[in-house]
Amino acid sequence: MGPSTPLLILFLLSWSGPLQGQQHHLVEYMERRLAALEERLAQCQDQSSRHAAELRDFKNKMLPLLEVAEKEREALRTEADTISGRVDRLEREVDYLETQSPALPCVELDEKVTGGPGTKGKGRRNEKYDMVTDCGYTISQVRSMKILKRFGGPAGLWTKDPLGQTEKIYVLDGTQNDTAFVFPRLRDFTLAMAARKASRVRVPFPWVGTGQLVYGGFLYFARRPPGGPGGGGETENTLQLIKFHLANRTVVDSSVFPAEGLIPPYGLTADTYIDLAADEEGLWAVYATREDDRHLCLAKLDPQTLDTEQQWDTPCPRENAEAAFVICGTLYVVYNTRPASRARIQCSFDASGTLTPERAALPYFPRRYGAHASLRYNPRERQLYAWDDGYQIVYKLEMRKKEEEV
């Protein structure tokens, strides 16, 4: 051993006493902490046992109440089903009674027979329309309804292009606007934040009313020229039809509608002066003039040139009319009341003369009490796209041959 070894041993022996004292204090501290934790664990266990007992008591008290509530719910559900069945039967009985006692036919009797004041002087041609397709269907009933969503204001238009190869949805909100929303497909339109999915197409002139139409890749709409209806001036009684290319976003044609003294054709839709429609036969226009301010007029248009091919004076009254559409050359006018109630097709006019008033069905729309600002028929889908107080609705139609009896 070296001379430094005894010194090292003395140094270690001198430090062993303090280290043993520190270890003793550490052990005592750990024992106190463990005792405190054991006490807290015991308290938690007691509280858990007490809470479990309270929950068991609460469960035992609630089970009978839940059984009573379930029985009451079943009783209410049974009662609601019974009431619903009674309402359905009542509506069928009302429909049957109204079918047995239909509304007054929309036929104007001759002045000499009625002895009423005034005469009707019309210079228009009212020749029968020669069908260009073999379409011979008429509405049997409005089969079902689906409310898609609520978008925009109380008046507007939404539709598909019946000749288009895509599933695009076109939405034109408002009665005096210049921007249309275009959605890639119906699913995108139904999303909560739908406007973010839409592209916007701006037309150079604001449209008038809700009579617009998307057809063959073009947007057809009525424009109020300076001094048009309601504006005063030399053209106070005229409207201009615009043909707008949706892809190129350019106006490709325009034409002044050949009718003077235009007035809103629908008594319940005061902002629309020309209502454009499309069916299996092509492009149509529904309008009214001061010459006969009680009835609707119908015109067949050339979609290429906007020329008016034929015109008819229909027996369908303007009063309480809210919208109309055309199927297979037949005009169907929808009527309602103010305030709005259940809409009904109450007058039809077949330009070809095939469908007689006696064979025409006058169905009600399904159980929604609202006001249609616009109705657009899609001949490919046999559906109506409706705008009802800001709600976008689809109606499915059931058809039958025009020659069949109601």
UniProtKB/TrEMBL annotation:
PROSITE patterns: OLF (PS51132). GO terms for biological process: signal transduction. Its main location: secreted. One of its GO terms (cellular component) is extracellular space. It comes from the Eukaryota. Keywords: Coiled coil, Developmental protein, Disulfide bond, Glycoprotein, Secreted, Signal. Residues 27-100 form a coiled coil. Residues 134-401 form the Olfactomedin-like domain. InterPro entries: Olfac-like_dom (IPR003112), Olfactomedin-like_domain (IPR050605). It is found in: Secreted. The keyword Transport does not apply. Residues 1-21 form the signal peptide. It holds the Pfam family OLF. Belongs to the OLFML3 family. This is Olfactomedin like 3. The lineage of its organism: Eukaryota, Metazoa, Chordata, Craniata, Vertebrata.
